[in-house]
Amino acid sequence: MSKPIVIVGGGISGLSTALFLSRAGKKVQVLESRKQPGGNLLTSTASGYRIEHGPNSTLHKPGRQEDALGRLMEAVGLTPLEANSEANKRFIVRNRTLLALPSSPLSFLTTKAFSPAAKLRLLLEPFIGRGKSEESIAQFVKRRLGQEFLDYAIDPFVSGVYAGNVQQLSVRAAVAKIYALEEEHGSLIRGALFGRQKNVSGMPKGRLISFEGGMGELPQAVSRALPEGTIKLSTRVVRLERAKRGWSVYWEGEGGEAGIEKAAQVILSTPASQSGKILAEISQTATRLLESIHYPPILSIALGYRRNRVAHPLDGFGFLVPRKEEIRTLGSLFSSTLFPGRAPDGQVLLTNFIGGATDQAVEVTDDRALALGVSRDLSSLLGIEGKPDFVQATRYRESIPQYTLGHLQKLQNIDRALASEKGLHLRCNWQGGISVGDCIRNGELLAEKIIQGG
Question: Which residue range(s) make up the domain with 338?
Protein backbone atom coordinates (compact mmCIF):
# COMPACT_ATOMS: atom_id res chain seq x y z
CA MET A 1 0.00 0.00 0.00
CA SER A 2 1.15 3.58 -0.66
CA LYS A 3 2.52 5.56 2.25
CA PRO A 4 0.03 7.83 3.99
CA ILE A 5 0.16 11.55 4.59
CA VAL A 6 0.95 11.73 8.30
CA ILE A 7 -0.58 14.61 10.25
CA VAL A 8 1.02 15.27 13.61
CA GLY A 9 -1.59 16.78 15.92
CA GLY A 10 -5.31 16.10 16.20
CA GLY A 11 -6.60 19.58 17.00
CA ILE A 12 -9.13 21.22 14.69
CA SER A 13 -6.36 22.30 12.25
CA GLY A 14 -5.06 18.75 11.85
CA LEU A 15 -8.49 17.12 11.84
CA SER A 16 -9.96 19.44 9.22
CA THR A 17 -6.91 19.00 6.98
CA ALA A 18 -7.25 15.24 7.39
CA LEU A 19 -10.94 15.28 6.46
CA PHE A 20 -10.50 17.40 3.33
CA LEU A 21 -7.60 15.16 2.21
CA SER A 22 -9.50 11.96 3.00
CA ARG A 23 -12.57 13.06 1.05
CA ALA A 24 -10.29 13.59 -1.95
CA GLY A 25 -9.14 9.97 -1.72
CA LYS A 26 -5.85 10.54 0.06
CA LYS A 27 -4.67 8.04 2.68
CA VAL A 28 -4.15 9.88 5.96
CA GLN A 29 -2.78 8.98 9.39
CA VAL A 30 -3.28 11.38 12.34
CA LEU A 31 -0.99 11.01 15.36
CA GLU A 32 -2.31 12.75 18.49
CA SER A 33 -0.47 12.90 21.82
CA ARG A 34 -3.59 13.32 23.96
CA LYS A 35 -6.13 10.66 24.87
CA GLN A 36 -8.82 12.32 22.74
CA PRO A 37 -8.82 14.43 19.58
CA GLY A 38 -9.85 18.06 19.38
CA GLY A 39 -7.06 19.92 21.15
CA ASN A 40 -8.54 22.83 23.12
CA LEU A 41 -11.98 22.35 21.53
CA LEU A 42 -13.20 20.43 24.55
CA THR A 43 -16.59 20.41 26.28
CA SER A 44 -17.50 18.59 29.48
CA THR A 45 -20.53 18.36 31.79
CA ALA A 46 -20.57 18.49 35.58
CA SER A 47 -23.40 19.07 38.07
CA GLY A 48 -25.76 19.89 35.19
CA TYR A 49 -23.45 22.57 33.71
CA ARG A 50 -21.95 22.31 30.22
CA ILE A 51 -18.44 23.74 30.40
CA GLU A 52 -16.31 24.89 27.49
CA HIS A 53 -12.61 24.46 28.22
CA GLY A 54 -11.51 26.32 25.09
CA PRO A 55 -13.42 28.42 22.53
CA ASN A 56 -17.04 28.95 23.61
CA SER A 57 -18.35 29.72 20.12
CA THR A 58 -17.21 30.59 16.62
CA LEU A 59 -18.32 32.93 13.84
CA HIS A 60 -19.93 31.32 10.80
CA LYS A 61 -20.29 33.26 7.54
CA PRO A 62 -22.49 31.03 5.37
CA GLY A 63 -22.39 31.11 1.59
CA ARG A 64 -18.99 32.75 1.26
CA GLN A 65 -15.96 31.40 -0.51
CA GLU A 66 -13.98 31.27 2.73
CA ASP A 67 -16.74 29.30 4.49
CA ALA A 68 -14.69 26.15 5.04
CA LEU A 69 -16.47 25.78 8.40
CA GLY A 70 -19.80 25.42 6.60
CA ARG A 71 -18.35 22.87 4.19
CA LEU A 72 -16.87 20.92 7.09
CA MET A 73 -20.15 20.88 9.03
CA GLU A 74 -21.99 19.69 5.94
CA ALA A 75 -19.42 16.96 5.34
CA VAL A 76 -19.78 15.55 8.85
CA GLY A 77 -23.56 16.09 9.14
CA LEU A 78 -23.37 18.57 12.02
CA THR A 79 -26.12 21.16 12.58
CA PRO A 80 -24.96 24.42 14.19
CA LEU A 81 -26.74 26.04 17.12
CA GLU A 82 -27.13 29.79 16.63
CA ALA A 83 -26.55 32.07 19.61
CA ASN A 84 -29.41 33.89 21.27
CA SER A 85 -30.15 37.28 19.67
CA GLU A 86 -28.98 38.94 22.88
CA ALA A 87 -25.44 37.89 21.94
CA ASN A 88 -25.29 41.03 19.78
CA LYS A 89 -25.21 43.13 22.94
CA ARG A 90 -21.74 43.42 24.46
CA PHE A 91 -20.52 45.25 27.50
CA ILE A 92 -17.31 46.89 28.64
CA VAL A 93 -16.42 48.04 32.14
CA ARG A 94 -15.88 51.75 32.68
CA ASN A 95 -15.55 53.28 36.12
CA ARG A 96 -16.37 49.81 37.48
CA THR A 97 -19.78 49.84 35.77
CA LEU A 98 -20.99 47.69 32.87
CA LEU A 99 -21.85 49.80 29.81
CA ALA A 100 -23.29 48.44 26.56
CA LEU A 101 -21.11 49.05 23.53
CA PRO A 102 -22.88 50.95 20.72
CA SER A 103 -24.33 48.78 17.96
CA SER A 104 -25.48 51.55 15.56
CA PRO A 105 -24.52 55.12 14.62
CA LEU A 106 -27.37 56.48 16.77
CA SER A 107 -26.38 54.45 19.83
CA PHE A 108 -22.79 55.59 19.33
CA LEU A 109 -23.91 59.20 19.63
CA THR A 110 -25.76 58.53 22.90
CA THR A 111 -23.49 55.95 24.55
CA LYS A 112 -21.72 56.76 27.82
CA ALA A 113 -18.99 54.23 26.99
CA PHE A 114 -17.02 57.00 25.24
CA SER A 115 -16.64 60.65 26.09
CA PRO A 116 -17.76 63.51 23.79
CA ALA A 117 -14.08 64.27 23.12
CA ALA A 118 -13.44 60.69 21.96
CA LYS A 119 -16.48 60.84 19.66
CA LEU A 120 -15.26 64.10 18.12
CA ARG A 121 -11.77 62.62 17.71
CA LEU A 122 -13.31 59.83 15.64
CA LEU A 123 -14.44 62.40 13.04
CA LEU A 124 -10.77 62.98 12.20
CA GLU A 125 -10.15 59.33 11.29
CA PRO A 126 -10.87 59.56 7.53
CA PHE A 127 -8.23 62.31 7.27
CA ILE A 128 -5.40 60.39 8.99
CA GLY A 129 -2.64 59.20 6.63
CA ARG A 130 -1.41 55.63 6.29
CA GLY A 131 1.33 54.31 8.57
CA LYS A 132 4.86 54.09 7.20
CA SER A 133 6.26 51.10 9.12
CA GLU A 134 5.13 48.05 11.06
CA GLU A 135 3.08 49.15 14.04
CA SER A 136 1.77 47.56 17.20
CA ILE A 137 -1.98 47.52 17.65
CA ALA A 138 -1.58 50.28 20.23
CA GLN A 139 0.39 52.52 17.85
CA PHE A 140 -2.07 51.94 15.00
CA VAL A 141 -5.23 52.56 17.03
CA LYS A 142 -3.86 55.57 18.89
CA ARG A 143 -2.81 57.13 15.56
CA ARG A 144 -6.12 56.51 13.84
CA LEU A 145 -8.71 56.62 16.63
CA GLY A 146 -7.10 58.18 19.68
CA GLN A 147 -6.12 57.07 23.18
CA GLU A 148 -9.62 56.59 24.58
CA PHE A 149 -10.70 54.14 21.87
CA LEU A 150 -7.48 52.27 22.47
CA ASP A 151 -8.11 52.09 26.22
CA TYR A 152 -11.84 51.29 26.20
CA ALA A 153 -12.52 49.46 22.92
CA ILE A 154 -9.44 47.82 21.45
CA ASP A 155 -7.39 47.02 24.55
CA PRO A 156 -10.16 44.97 26.23
CA PHE A 157 -10.92 43.21 22.94
CA VAL A 158 -7.26 42.23 22.46
CA SER A 159 -6.74 41.10 26.06
CA GLY A 160 -10.05 39.21 26.08
CA VAL A 161 -9.88 37.53 22.66
CA TYR A 162 -6.14 37.15 22.05
CA ALA A 163 -4.97 37.12 25.70
CA GLY A 164 -2.58 39.69 24.26
CA ASN A 165 -0.87 43.00 24.94
CA VAL A 166 -1.75 45.83 22.53
CA GLN A 167 1.75 47.25 22.93
CA GLN A 168 3.33 44.02 21.64
CA LEU A 169 0.98 42.57 19.02
CA SER A 170 1.48 43.46 15.36
CA VAL A 171 -1.58 45.08 13.82
CA ARG A 172 -0.73 43.62 10.42
CA ALA A 173 -0.33 40.07 11.75
CA ALA A 174 -2.91 39.89 14.56
CA VAL A 175 -5.80 41.90 13.08
CA ALA A 176 -5.05 41.73 9.38
CA LYS A 177 -8.58 42.68 8.32
CA ILE A 178 -8.41 45.97 10.23
CA TYR A 179 -4.96 46.68 8.79
CA ALA A 180 -6.33 45.95 5.30
CA LEU A 181 -9.02 48.63 5.69
CA GLU A 182 -6.34 51.29 5.96
CA GLU A 183 -4.24 49.77 3.18
CA GLU A 184 -7.12 49.45 0.72
CA HIS A 185 -9.31 52.44 1.63
CA GLY A 186 -7.01 54.79 3.56
CA SER A 187 -9.54 54.87 6.41
CA LEU A 188 -11.22 52.41 8.76
CA ILE A 189 -14.52 54.27 8.49
CA ARG A 190 -14.48 54.40 4.68
CA GLY A 191 -13.46 50.75 4.56
CA ALA A 192 -16.28 49.74 6.92
CA LEU A 193 -18.84 51.68 4.87
CA PHE A 194 -17.57 50.05 1.65
CA GLY A 195 -17.85 46.62 3.27
CA ARG A 196 -21.40 47.35 4.36
CA GLN A 197 -22.34 48.34 0.80
CA LYS A 198 -20.89 45.10 -0.54
CA ASN A 199 -22.99 43.08 1.91
CA VAL A 200 -26.25 44.63 0.69
CA SER A 201 -26.28 41.92 -2.01
CA GLY A 202 -28.27 39.59 0.23
CA MET A 203 -25.29 37.57 1.43
CA PRO A 204 -26.08 36.27 4.94
CA LYS A 205 -24.24 38.06 7.72
CA GLY A 206 -21.90 36.24 10.05
CA ARG A 207 -23.60 34.47 12.93
CA LEU A 208 -22.26 33.26 16.24
CA ILE A 209 -22.66 29.50 16.61
CA SER A 210 -21.90 26.52 18.77
CA PHE A 211 -23.50 23.06 18.89
CA GLU A 212 -26.10 21.44 21.11
CA GLY A 213 -23.44 19.51 22.99
CA GLY A 214 -20.93 22.36 22.91
CA MET A 215 -17.94 23.18 20.73
CA GLY A 216 -16.41 19.79 21.50
CA GLU A 217 -18.99 18.24 19.17
CA LEU A 218 -17.13 19.61 16.16
CA PRO A 219 -13.85 17.66 16.47
CA GLN A 220 -15.75 14.59 17.62
CA ALA A 221 -17.94 14.69 14.51
CA VAL A 222 -14.90 15.14 12.25
CA SER A 223 -13.15 12.22 13.97
CA ARG A 224 -16.15 9.95 13.38
CA ALA A 225 -16.30 10.97 9.71
CA LEU A 226 -12.71 9.88 9.06
CA PRO A 227 -12.04 6.27 8.02
CA GLU A 228 -11.63 3.86 10.91
CA GLY A 229 -8.07 3.74 12.21
CA THR A 230 -7.13 7.16 10.84
CA ILE A 231 -6.49 8.66 14.30
CA LYS A 232 -3.94 7.14 16.65
CA LEU A 233 -4.26 8.61 20.16
CA SER A 234 -1.73 8.80 23.03
CA THR A 235 1.00 8.91 20.40
CA ARG A 236 3.65 11.60 20.82
CA VAL A 237 5.87 12.35 17.83
CA VAL A 238 9.45 13.04 18.94
CA ARG A 239 11.34 13.62 15.70
CA LEU A 240 11.36 13.43 11.92
CA GLU A 241 13.94 11.96 9.62
CA ARG A 242 14.22 12.32 5.85
CA ALA A 243 13.83 8.98 4.10
CA LYS A 244 14.73 7.98 0.54
CA ARG A 245 11.15 8.52 -0.57
CA GLY A 246 9.33 10.60 1.98
CA TRP A 247 9.73 10.75 5.74
CA SER A 248 10.17 8.61 8.83
CA VAL A 249 8.07 9.79 11.77
CA TYR A 250 9.32 8.57 15.16
CA TRP A 251 6.74 8.32 17.92
CA GLU A 252 6.35 7.18 21.51
CA GLY A 253 3.21 5.80 23.11
CA GLU A 254 2.03 4.97 26.59
CA GLY A 255 3.95 2.43 28.63
CA GLY A 256 7.24 2.89 26.79
CA GLU A 257 5.82 1.82 23.43
CA ALA A 258 7.61 3.32 20.40
CA GLY A 259 7.48 3.07 16.62
CA ILE A 260 8.12 4.61 13.22
CA GLU A 261 5.48 5.70 10.71
CA LYS A 262 6.59 5.88 7.07
CA ALA A 263 5.04 8.87 5.34
CA ALA A 264 4.82 10.23 1.81
CA GLN A 265 4.28 13.72 3.29
CA VAL A 266 4.16 15.12 6.81
CA ILE A 267 1.98 17.93 8.19
CA LEU A 268 2.95 19.34 11.58
CA SER A 269 -0.27 20.62 13.12
CA THR A 270 1.15 21.23 16.57
CA PRO A 271 1.91 24.29 18.75
CA ALA A 272 4.97 26.23 17.63
CA SER A 273 7.33 25.07 20.39
CA GLN A 274 6.32 21.44 19.89
CA SER A 275 6.85 21.75 16.13
CA GLY A 276 10.27 23.23 16.87
CA LYS A 277 11.30 20.26 19.00
CA ILE A 278 10.17 17.79 16.33
CA LEU A 279 12.20 19.66 13.70
CA ALA A 280 15.37 19.95 15.80
CA GLU A 281 17.33 17.54 13.60
CA ILE A 282 15.95 19.01 10.37
CA SER A 283 16.58 22.75 10.86
CA GLN A 284 18.00 24.45 13.93
CA THR A 285 16.97 27.81 12.44
CA ALA A 286 13.33 26.77 12.14
CA THR A 287 13.43 25.32 15.65
CA ARG A 288 14.81 28.54 17.13
CA LEU A 289 12.19 30.66 15.37
CA LEU A 290 9.30 28.39 16.30
CA GLU A 291 10.32 28.23 19.94
CA SER A 292 10.42 32.04 20.06
CA ILE A 293 6.64 32.29 19.42
CA HIS A 294 5.15 33.11 22.81
CA TYR A 295 2.04 31.55 24.35
CA PRO A 296 0.98 33.29 27.60
CA PRO A 297 -0.71 31.41 30.46
CA ILE A 298 -4.45 31.80 30.99
CA LEU A 299 -7.20 30.33 33.15
CA SER A 300 -10.77 29.75 32.08
CA ILE A 301 -12.93 29.66 35.20
CA ALA A 302 -16.54 28.46 35.00
CA LEU A 303 -18.74 29.76 37.82
CA GLY A 304 -22.35 28.75 38.44
CA TYR A 305 -24.82 30.80 40.49
CA ARG A 306 -28.48 30.72 41.37
CA ARG A 307 -30.22 33.13 39.02
CA ASN A 308 -32.01 34.99 41.80
CA ARG A 309 -28.66 35.93 43.37
CA VAL A 310 -27.41 37.79 40.27
CA ALA A 311 -28.77 41.33 39.99
CA HIS A 312 -27.59 41.99 36.41
CA PRO A 313 -30.04 40.79 33.70
CA LEU A 314 -27.15 39.07 31.83
CA ASP A 315 -28.75 40.29 28.62
CA GLY A 316 -25.79 40.02 26.31
CA PHE A 317 -22.72 38.17 25.13
CA GLY A 318 -20.70 39.16 28.18
CA PHE A 319 -18.28 41.88 29.19
CA LEU A 320 -14.62 42.78 28.71
CA VAL A 321 -12.47 44.69 31.16
CA PRO A 322 -10.02 47.37 29.97
CA ARG A 323 -6.63 47.01 31.67
CA LYS A 324 -6.99 50.69 32.61
CA GLU A 325 -9.72 49.70 35.07
CA GLU A 326 -7.16 47.78 37.17
CA ILE A 327 -9.47 44.78 37.57
CA ARG A 328 -7.61 41.50 37.22
CA THR A 329 -10.38 39.53 35.47
CA LEU A 330 -10.09 39.93 31.68
CA GLY A 331 -13.75 39.34 30.95
CA SER A 332 -16.77 37.10 31.33
CA LEU A 333 -19.12 35.31 28.93
CA PHE A 334 -22.78 34.92 29.86
CA SER A 335 -22.71 31.30 28.72
CA SER A 336 -26.22 30.31 29.82
CA THR A 337 -27.63 33.35 28.01
CA LEU A 338 -25.85 32.58 24.76
CA PHE A 339 -26.93 28.98 24.25
CA PRO A 340 -29.57 26.69 25.84
CA GLY A 341 -28.62 23.75 28.02
CA ARG A 342 -25.55 25.37 29.58
CA ALA A 343 -26.85 25.46 33.16
CA PRO A 344 -29.49 23.68 35.28
CA ASP A 345 -32.90 25.30 35.68
CA GLY A 346 -32.76 28.33 37.95
CA GLN A 347 -28.98 28.60 37.59
CA VAL A 348 -26.64 30.66 35.38
CA LEU A 349 -23.19 29.84 34.05
CA LEU A 350 -20.51 32.50 33.62
CA THR A 351 -17.27 31.62 31.83
CA ASN A 352 -14.44 33.91 32.93
CA PHE A 353 -10.85 34.51 31.89
CA ILE A 354 -7.80 35.66 33.80
CA GLY A 355 -4.12 35.87 32.87
CA GLY A 356 -2.72 36.47 29.40
CA ALA A 357 0.24 38.50 28.22
CA THR A 358 -0.50 41.35 30.64
CA ASP A 359 -0.73 39.09 33.72
CA GLN A 360 1.87 36.33 33.53
CA ALA A 361 1.79 36.00 37.33
CA VAL A 362 -1.19 33.64 37.03
CA GLU A 363 1.36 30.97 36.13
CA VAL A 364 2.55 30.83 39.75
CA THR A 365 -0.79 31.56 41.46
CA ASP A 366 -3.04 28.85 42.87
CA ASP A 367 -6.22 28.04 40.89
CA ARG A 368 -8.38 28.40 43.99
CA ALA A 369 -7.01 31.87 44.77
CA LEU A 370 -7.58 32.99 41.18
CA ALA A 371 -11.15 31.65 41.15
CA LEU A 372 -11.85 33.50 44.42
CA GLY A 373 -10.51 36.73 42.91
CA VAL A 374 -12.68 36.33 39.80
CA SER A 375 -15.72 35.64 42.00
CA ARG A 376 -15.08 38.88 43.91
CA ASP A 377 -14.78 40.84 40.66
CA LEU A 378 -18.08 39.41 39.40
CA SER A 379 -19.85 40.10 42.67
CA SER A 380 -18.93 43.77 42.36
CA LEU A 381 -19.65 44.15 38.64
CA LEU A 382 -22.81 42.02 38.34
CA GLY A 383 -24.32 42.50 41.77
CA ILE A 384 -23.97 38.89 42.88
CA GLU A 385 -24.80 37.85 46.45
CA GLY A 386 -22.83 35.03 48.02
CA LYS A 387 -20.33 32.52 46.71
CA PRO A 388 -20.74 30.49 43.51
CA ASP A 389 -22.48 27.12 43.73
CA PHE A 390 -20.18 25.65 41.08
CA VAL A 391 -16.51 26.28 40.27
CA GLN A 392 -14.31 24.63 37.66
CA ALA A 393 -10.98 26.01 36.42
CA THR A 394 -9.10 25.02 33.26
CA ARG A 395 -5.47 26.10 33.19
CA TYR A 396 -3.46 26.60 30.02
CA ARG A 397 0.21 27.25 30.66
CA GLU A 398 0.45 28.01 26.94
CA SER A 399 -2.79 29.45 25.61
CA ILE A 400 -2.97 31.51 22.40
CA PRO A 401 0.05 32.16 20.13
CA GLN A 402 1.00 35.83 20.14
CA TYR A 403 1.42 37.51 16.74
CA THR A 404 3.91 40.06 18.05
CA LEU A 405 5.86 42.68 16.09
CA GLY A 406 8.00 40.90 13.51
CA HIS A 407 5.74 37.82 13.43
CA LEU A 408 5.16 37.84 9.67
CA GLN A 409 8.88 38.16 9.01
CA LYS A 410 9.45 35.27 11.40
CA LEU A 411 7.00 33.11 9.43
CA GLN A 412 8.81 33.97 6.18
CA ASN A 413 12.12 32.97 7.74
CA ILE A 414 10.64 29.64 8.90
CA ASP A 415 9.40 28.98 5.37
CA ARG A 416 12.84 29.82 3.98
CA ALA A 417 14.59 27.53 6.46
CA LEU A 418 12.36 24.61 5.41
CA ALA A 419 12.00 25.41 1.71
CA SER A 420 14.19 22.49 0.62
CA GLU A 421 12.28 19.94 2.73
CA LYS A 422 9.98 18.48 0.11
CA GLY A 423 6.74 17.03 1.46
CA LEU A 424 6.96 18.81 4.83
CA HIS A 425 4.14 21.22 5.77
CA LEU A 426 3.31 23.25 8.87
CA ARG A 427 -0.29 24.12 9.68
CA CYS A 428 -1.49 25.37 13.07
CA ASN A 429 -2.98 28.49 14.65
CA TRP A 430 0.39 30.23 15.10
CA GLN A 431 0.06 31.14 11.42
CA GLY A 432 -2.90 32.42 9.41
CA GLY A 433 -5.27 33.27 12.27
CA ILE A 434 -6.26 31.91 15.67
CA SER A 435 -10.02 31.44 15.26
CA VAL A 436 -11.73 28.09 14.69
CA GLY A 437 -12.87 29.28 11.25
CA ASP A 438 -9.34 30.38 10.32
CA CYS A 439 -7.90 27.00 11.34
CA ILE A 440 -10.44 25.09 9.24
CA ARG A 441 -10.02 27.34 6.20
CA ASN A 442 -6.23 27.07 6.36
CA GLY A 443 -6.54 23.29 6.65
CA GLU A 444 -8.75 23.26 3.55
CA LEU A 445 -6.26 25.40 1.60
CA LEU A 446 -3.35 23.13 2.54
CA ALA A 447 -5.35 20.06 1.53
CA GLU A 448 -6.12 21.64 -1.85
CA LYS A 449 -2.43 22.44 -2.36
CA ILE A 450 -1.40 18.84 -1.61
CA ILE A 451 -4.19 17.39 -3.79
CA GLN A 452 -2.99 19.56 -6.67
CA GLY A 453 0.51 18.21 -6.23
CA GLY A 454 2.02 21.09 -4.22
Answer: 298-396
